[in-house]
Amino acid sequence: MKVLFITDIHWGYSDKGNQRWIKYAKELKAKHPDAIIILGGDNGSNDVRHEIKCLSKMREIFSDNPIYYLMGNHSYWNASGRSEIFVENSKTYTLDGAQKIHQAIYDCAKLLNIKYLPESPIIDHESKFIITGVSGWYESTQFYTNDCNHINNWSESDEWLRKNCYEEFQKTIPLHETYRSKGYKTVLASHFHFHGDIFDWKTSNGSWFGANRSYAQFMTYTDENWFGHTHRSFNKVLDKVHYINTGTDYAKPSHLESFT
After folding, report:
1. Helix (H, G, I), strand (E, B), or coil: what is residue 165?
2. What is the pTM of this model?
3. Judging by beta carbons within 10 Å of its beta carbon (0-12, 13-18, 19+), is residue 96 exposed, middle or buried?
4. Longest C-alpha distance within the chain, in Å?
5. Measured between alpha carbons, how far is 146 from 229 in angstroms, rounded to an integer?
6. Which of 9, 47, 65, 112 could form a disulfide with 59 if both were Cys (CB 3.0 to 4.6 A apart)?
7. For domain 3-258, which CATH number applies: 3.30.70, 3.60.21, 3.90.940, 3.30.43?
8. CA distances from 146 to 19, 50, 177, 219, 252 (A)
9. Segment 66-101, tens digit of pLDDT
């Protein structure tokens, strides 16, 4: 079984980027027609509609593949300033906060038969691996990221996202402990990174751009962490966990392949 981890598509950032990703995804589909697809967050660029459009386009290309997704910081952006969004199931969602945006995307993904990875871990008993998901959030939100300017109801949203990150992490720990004891390979797919030794492209001013570094303690039973967010490649074992980021950047597609 082949698993493809594709993160930071940033659909809607530019027409050039959109076309490059369409071409790239079609090439992946041709090469790995039966692969499991994991979209690792920031699937859209600066508007919730971009996030939904990306999910729809990936379902169009990977028409019969199992697809899972995570949320990134850009996934919650509402740069258009719209107060509500009408989606294809004839339901109108208000966009006054991250929790409601999360629900709107979740419902749209469900219509497309795309599963939210933190709720639907991938377990393969034949190949003996488990992949869980944590979307993640900042340890302390940096205002220069512009998230505070583009996510509605910022203070409440920031608090909810931090709480949601912690709760998702708590779900992975017993699963990884149980399956590793059975000899399974354990993988955590996330948008944010959690280890303080992972260099980040936004840290030139000395600020920490990643998620809560104390969460690295939760990785005791995790073999690998696939992550995005930084737009910088990383492939190194830290504290017995193999951290991998393919370095996808705006309009510069890449992906991670694992398992056979």
Report:
1. helix
2. 0.95
3. middle
4. 49
5. 14
6. 112
7. 3.60.21
8. 26, 17, 37, 29, 22
9. 999 999 999 999 877 777 776 666 678 888 899 999
